[in-house]
Amino acid sequence: MGPPLGIGTGRYESVDLELPERSLLAFFTDGLVETRHGDIDAGLDRLLAALHRPSASLEDLCARVIARMTTDAPPEDDIALLMARTRADDGSRAADAEHRGLSA
Question: Is the whole-model pTM more than 0.85?
Fold first, then answer.
């Protein structure tokens, strides 16, 4: 674990993880879960509840999460949310990228 992304200080350690196919990854800024008057742990719990039943579309899921997280009051800070799902790779995309001289 390292410092938050984007602040320009500290070092980051690379970690390899094996995730099951269709795992959901959610990257977000603190503005999504933290308010001046609310506890960050409560915000994280609300986020986990919003992610509990992921829809088929990442776009719909992002919209639902943002709506749920901002219903009580307008955001006090910038909000960014990026979601991705893992999928099985048959190796052809990596091989194609290497063939063109690109890193995979």
Answer: no
